[in-house]
Amino acid sequence: MNILALILSLSFVMIAYFLSAAFKLGLGRDLLITTIRATIQLMIVGYILKIVFGFDNPFAMILMLLLMITVATKNAAKQGRGLPYVFWKIFITITIVEIITQGFLLGLKIVPATPQYIIPISGMIIGNSMIIANLFLNRLKGEVEIRKEEILLVLSLGGSVKQAIYPILKRSIKSSLIPTIEGQKTIGLVQLPGMMTGQIIAGADPIQAVRFQLLIVFLIMSAATLTAIVLGFLIYPGLFNKEQQLDVHVFLKKGK
Amino acid sequence: MQKITEVELKNVSKIFVNDGEEMYALRKVSGTVTKGSILTIIGPSGSGKSTILSLCNLLSTPDEGEIYVGEKEIREWNIQELRRYVGIAFQSAPMLAGTVEENLCLPLKLRGQSLEEPEKYLDFVGLSKDLLTREAKELSGGQRQRLSLARTLVNKPSVLLLDEVTSALDSISSQEIEELIMRINAERQTTIIWVTHDLNQAKRVGTQTWMVMEGSLVESGPTELFFSQPKDNRTKEFLHNLMRDSQ
Fold first, then answer.
1. DSSP designation for B135
2. B81 in contact with A, Cβ within 8 Å
């Protein structure tokens, strides 16, 4: 795609902008900011990728992956404000998920060990883990809020913190995975996944593109499950203090 | 007969922080509860009565002072053992999703054991064994409170904390639960610490009574004497106002 075509594609933004103005939706400013942000972010990423691919140096690639994990962690950690070491717990979780999934892909030589494969696939894994971490923490917050009495009951009967939180943890893990699983059920029927579309547009054989997409679907399902479970087990001890009392005042505080 | 102290509070304070401001929920409370006795705690809403209960089995931690249960400071206990030794029944009688039997067996399940003859516990609290397979959350308020007490008794606690257990019940259920608790005390020699807003109940069931106001223990004494000859003016006023309102 040449620059002129890219500039012409801005017409789509203009359509949205004029419609927003005509119907007084008040979205003009947001549309403008989003367009500028998306352009700058993607341009930067494009150039960084070009540099990293050019270096062909594993350290540059690892640095890039660490940067991606840090940004994803920072985003998800907002949802867990008030929990001890939440940033590091999410960082460790996403790193574990990344190592396991990439280790599997590279170890079995499913994809070549080059930055051109590792970085985009990692982007999908890390981004997906970030969303799952967000959903999980959000669900956990809701469940703890609603079922505080049950937690207290189990503790008061001599149960351990793990026994008290386990049903809530299980439910939060399950709920955070539902959108991923449901989303995959209609894959290809309503819309073609982004990566597959990209490959087809770039001239790849659709069957090859489908194989790659299936790989990503399977990968995302396992990465999602791993994220929710690993994060769940790292997070739950922080909900209690050393006297085994539920200590979630800051975590449950609304609007913060 | 020699009186043995089961629970002792020594200068116990509890501080809550609200929007960065420290507030005393309890201030320097001291007192003893004799083994096998019934202590009733009365006082206005929000005075700190329930806080005393939650401190006794470490569902909340004292910020100052010490609490001894069976001669051992609560923080020296193994927490799970302490919570089994000092059982608690809540006003709302919370139930986990599942049947009556599952709820009743919960305390032992938490220890990896199973409960032999659960129907005996139901029988003790006056519930039919036919209820074992019923969903616990479908029970009436009175039935739930009985089940809640039975479930707490499965741990064979030496001390039983009762947090307004009859206040959400109708008068008949309330009376039946009261009789049941008196039976638990008489047959099992269980020490009972009973928070209640019902002065007549506190008078009927108590061996000792404490009056808590704004986090402080303003008066304590043998129940009969406490109600017939209150010494502190705040107690006199509180009792007078409540008795007048109930007439």
1. B
2. yes
